[in-house]
Amino acid sequence: MNKPTKPGDFDAPKVTTGALPASRKVYSRPARDPDLAVPHREIDLHPSANEPAVRVYDTSGPYSDPTAEIDVEKGLPRHRRDWLLARGGLEEYDGRDVKPEDNGGATGKYLAREFPVKHMPLRGLPGQMVTQYEFAKAGIITKEMVYVAERENLGRSQALENARAQIDQGNSFGADIPEFITPEFVRDEIARGRAIIPANINHAELEPQIIGRNFLVKINANIGNSAVASSIEEEVEKMVWATRWGADNVMDLSTGRNIHNTREWIIRNSPVPIGTVPIYQALEKVNGVAEDLTWEVYRDTLIEQCEQGVDYFTIHAGVRLAYIHLTAKRVCGIVSRGGSIMAKWMLAHHKESFLYDHFEDICDIMRAYDVSFSLGDGLRPGAIADANDAAQFAELETLGELTKIAWAKGCQVMIEGPGHVPMHKIKINMDKQLKACGEAPFYTLGPLVTDIAPGYDHITSGIGAAMIGWFGTSMLCYVTPKEHLGLPDRNDVKVGVITYRIAAHAADLAKGHPAAQLRDDALSRARFEFRWEDQFNLALDPETARDFHDQTLPKDAHKVAHFCSMCGPKFCSMKITAEVRDYAAGMSENERLDLEKQAAEARKGMEEKSREFLNKGGEIYIHAPKDRQT
Amino acid sequence: MNKPTKPGDFDAPKVTTGALPASRKVYSRPARDPDLAVPHREIDLHPSANEPAVRVYDTSGPYSDPTAEIDVEKGLPRHRRDWLLARGGLEEYDGRDVKPEDNGGATGKYLAREFPVKHMPLRGLPGQMVTQYEFAKAGIITKEMVYVAERENLGRSQALENARAQIDQGNSFGADIPEFITPEFVRDEIARGRAIIPANINHAELEPQIIGRNFLVKINANIGNSAVASSIEEEVEKMVWATRWGADNVMDLSTGRNIHNTREWIIRNSPVPIGTVPIYQALEKVNGVAEDLTWEVYRDTLIEQCEQGVDYFTIHAGVRLAYIHLTAKRVCGIVSRGGSIMAKWMLAHHKESFLYDHFEDICDIMRAYDVSFSLGDGLRPGAIADANDAAQFAELETLGELTKIAWAKGCQVMIEGPGHVPMHKIKINMDKQLKACGEAPFYTLGPLVTDIAPGYDHITSGIGAAMIGWFGTSMLCYVTPKEHLGLPDRNDVKVGVITYRIAAHAADLAKGHPAAQLRDDALSRARFEFRWEDQFNLALDPETARDFHDQTLPKDAHKVAHFCSMCGPKFCSMKITAEVRDYAAGMSENERLDLEKQAAEARKGMEEKSREFLNKGGEIYIHAPKDRQT
Predict the structure, then answer these.
(1) What is the pLDDT of residues A173-212, one digit of tens each?
(2) Are residues A496 and A508 in the same domain?
(3) Cβ separation B344–A579 shorter than 8 A
(4) B538 contact residues in A (CB cutoff 8 A)
(5) Does the first or last residue of chain A, that is N or C, have fewer Cβ atoms within 10 Å of its Cβ?
(6) Is residue A521 in some structural domain?
(7) Are A402 and A534 members of one domain?
(8) Which residue among B128, B539, B583 places its CB closest to the CB of A454?
């Protein structure tokens, strides 16, 4: 209490740092561009495994690198700025002044502390290329493209030997997964609109990442303070925490006060793309009265967020006046917050949405900073009863039109999808989206396959997410156990992220991603060989795996024991399998043939007996009259 | 401490009783057989809902009926005994004496207390029909068939008005779900082998239930003490607890000592069918040495369990000597405990499995008590790498042969399935099973769609379970979060059951079960109308839903508030939807047509602009040479 305090001493958000169990951060350098350092995680195995470390995709940024110096007050290193300045076509300028309404008019002790460092924003110069889409169309490979190719390959310098076989045994529903990701492939996919690299030129702290059907399936975690609860400190840590467990993207869905300052802290400290829904902040600027929204307020909010470095915007421009009445008979009406804000505005003014009317203006703004579109599904179904209805699909068609406009304007685009959809109605969503939106990446919320399990909607939605990810969705927006009930805490965020990592990985496996099964195989070998520590360390959540094991068998000795708590020490199926291997290894070809002959004979005998019985069947009892009841 | 103790005062298992929130137990009486009282649960809604109570399927037995007298020392009422004695064809006899080895030789304080009441067992008289399959084949409708028909319909006396439409909008992959379940339909499905009613004539406490592709998807929860942990008290409560949350069936997978006494307590108190894997107990009788197993020990164990009232046996008769070497190159070998016990025996003796060789004898025993077969998949894959391999499918073909034998012998049969299977390899399992096993009900463990998430295998398997349930699996065996790591505790059992209720219900919805969506719709209406209490009460787990809500907004007032914690009081999408409804209701036909015209025109304009842009696209920049990198 007697220590002098300096400005940095208080209020500095505490974030989780340190390596994951048995893990090392490694950086690989693409041959084409060796000044790039692309991060991966390597999980070391027990020496008895006699296997190399298992390399896995790493979203956790410098926080999990014990050699990195983390200072949340300074933000992460802004390495991308050099790439961008070298590329040219950009100007540094003063930027918009922060206004009181950007923080919801918060003052004094209610105003969250400003981020201590100020950076001048960049924007594209007139007539110059800015976006990854523009460069790709022009045949140019950016550093971001090289980076994501290296990252998707986990730094491998060539395709895995069995890559073709892995792809062929999968079912990717017409996707075109390559054996090896080259920067050229990345560029081509972006130029076709089939993939995006969300990377605002003002998010210099970013470790770029690609979202598209022919790449690893990505996941998004939502964070954000609300009018009801939470602080800046919590939000920054939620971002760090979510990416530690595998969130590829984070959306800041803050409402209420301090939106601007909260977001600045998040972006300056975020290694992953940050998305927002700008209409939320615009609504705060008009005191929550939807009908008071104007294009001018919205436009100003877009520029504010572009300058801060938001990487993608959810824009509900597909919610049109003509579609609103289609939702009237729904069980759950309009459940998208952005969708209902716009519906309210349109009803109040009886005018077409200003997002739709000003769509080209929006494109011009976003292009100048390379902010990607996430075209919002404001009319997504919020109940099983409302799935795949006229309102939902009318909006999807409009999103398809808007996609083409945005592409023509040079912007990167992805499309948001539902929502609540029973299993048999999921695939049609994917098929329609691919067709209507020219294969632009689909980004879905779940979908939840039933409405009846509040408290478990990470699971109801994880089922739908795994399926739609398999069918071709490029990014899955997580749902936490608190969905529909309350705000997720730290543990909910983790459970949501792990559930969605499961869904994304299950989708990668089913699509036939050439490297997906490596981790399953490594873990299963560890399981088979009773390498308990390796099994924990290779798990998506090593802490929980270890904790669950220790609840039954807490002693350290059990972690090297050749049995587990399920069967106990006397009998173990894994032990027997080892004996089977010895047996099979010792079998001669003659013995094998002999066995097969015996089996065929026994089978023939069985079949005869079965026929015999069936012929007799029903005759051994006296038939009673039909429907007699006993 | 001074109170005198009576025999019933100590050691009596404590079980959970009482109604679920806002729920009443109701009994309906089938018109055809009004002396049967078939239980359902009715969930009362808030008066403002102006909706009748929502009736749901109820697996919880008398424990959730506040008017029932529960005395675990006496067991549940043995109402089925009257039905059976009235039906005839059975004899009461002394039964086998309990031997010390039945309880693993436990003595003194290590011997679990015997169940206080002794019942004489029943068995079929020579040449008389015993099994539901035999009666069905003979055209006879049993009381059990009437009971399950009433139960599947939730007591409705006729089909729902929109039943046909619901079925037609679903996709049941060739199943044949009727609009309304009649006893005749039940009989026909059983006679075709497409459904079973597991109902040992010595399980008189049972509330019968049907398992088949054209009925509601069922779930199974595994319990059982192990050599490492747990007691009788815990096991009885686990059964009560699991059925309270929705387990349709319970398997007692006990190993170690006291298997006989534990099982007696469970069965005498169980309203749901109890399954076992008799080889586990047989192995204990030979001190855990697999090669010491004999047909005689196994046969004696079958009779012991038949007399106690076990409703279905997992029998791994499809693991044949000729298939063992097919598992040698697997990543995880043989992971089924029963499968590996038999593999070990066959290797030790170099002989065909005694389960296969004595299959007809086993049928004769099981038929005499109407114990259903659950033909075990001893060679199921235990890793993604091993899915759908030669060993697995060779065994499945054999299970198909054995199914036909068992039918010819008059037995009811279901087939167990995997395991660890990636999503794209799930459907082939279902298709092959239907074909190989003549549409006998499939009963799968998950499948787990990835190996990399120990600690979350209720989720990895819930994804696979929902999918395979949709494709046609009749019963889903739950997996708890502790799978692969430790023994499930009370909370794990609940989480496993709820996860599998989600999977089963998602499957019912997707198959187009005519009544499945009623609960989703009721819950979604409650959600839309801010009837928080109704939303909790209609949830699969009302306690968790309420608890999660209260963590963010604990005040009682919030439970009637017309907003929720996600958006706060100022803005609410649900509120806006109410305004949309008013608007749509007030629209004239002319207004509607005018809107649609405007929309069509705007769309045309957009399309023209998009074409214009696209035609110009790429020309506004000077093309750089391909692959130039910036």
Answers:
(1) 999 999 999 999 999 999 999 999 999 999 999 999 999 9
(2) yes
(3) yes
(4) 452
(5) N
(6) yes
(7) no
(8) B539
Q: What is the mean pLDDT of residues A493-497?
A: 97
Q: Is the same domain home to B524 and B421? A: no
**Claim to verify: residue B268 and residue B147 sit in the same structural domain:** yes
Asked if the Cβ–Cβ distance from B337 to A573 is below 8 Å, we say yes
Q: Is the pLDDT of residue B5 over 50?
A: no
| Phi and psi angles of residue A229, each rounded to the nearest 5 degrees, phi first | -155, 170
List the beta strands (DSSP E) in B308-371.
312-315
Q: Is residue A495 part of a domain?
A: yes
Residues B51, B165 within the same domain = no
pLDDT (0 to 100) of residue B150: 98
A280 has a pLDDT exceeding 80? yes
Nearest-Cα distance to chain A for B433, in Å, is: 18
Distance CA A452, CA B520 (A): 5
How many separate domains does chain B show? 3
- A77-121 tens-digit pLDDT: 999 999 999 999 999 999 999 999 999 999 888 888 899 999 999
Query: Which of residues B514, B537, B562 is at a domain's end?
Result: B514
Please name the member of B335, B347, B506 whose beta carbon is closest to the beta carbon of A583: B347
Verify whether the Cβ–Cβ distance A486 to B549 is below 8 Å. Answer: yes
Q: In angstroms, rounded to a whole number, what is the distance separating the alpha carbons of residues A137 and A141? A: 10
The answer to whether the Cβ–Cβ distance between B567 and A129 falls below 8 Å is no
Give the tens place of pLDDT for each residue, B83-131: 999 999 999 999 999 999 999 999 888 888 899 999 999 999 999 999 9
Query: Could you give the CA distance from residue B370 to residue B367 in angstroms, rounded to a whole number?
Result: 5
Of B87, B450, B596, the CB nearest to A630: B87
B416 is in an annotated binding site: yes
CA separation for the pair B423, A502 (Å, rounded): 12
* Gap between the Cα atoms of A255 and B599, Å rounded: 32
Q: If you measure CA to CA, which chain B residue comes closest to A426?
A: B510
Nearest to B523 among A423, A451, A511 (CB): A451
Q: Are A183 and A247 in contact (CB under 8 A)?
A: no
Question: Is position B567 annotated in a ligand binding site?
Answer: yes
Indicate whether B520 and B505 sit together in one domain: no
Q: Which of A496, A514, A532 is a domain's end point? A: A514
pLDDT of amino acid A5: 36
Cis bond before residue A454 (omega within 30° of 0): no
Task: Please give the residue range of the domain that contains residue A271.
Answer: 77-514
Distance from CA of B71 to the nearest CA of A (A): 30
> What ipTM goes with this model?
0.93
Burial (CB < 10 A; 0-12, 13-18, 19+), residue A559, is middle
Q: What residues of B are in contact with residue A328 (Cβ under 8 Å)?
A: 580-581, 583-585
B41 and B186 within one domain? no
| Overall pTM surpassing 0.90 (yes/no) | yes
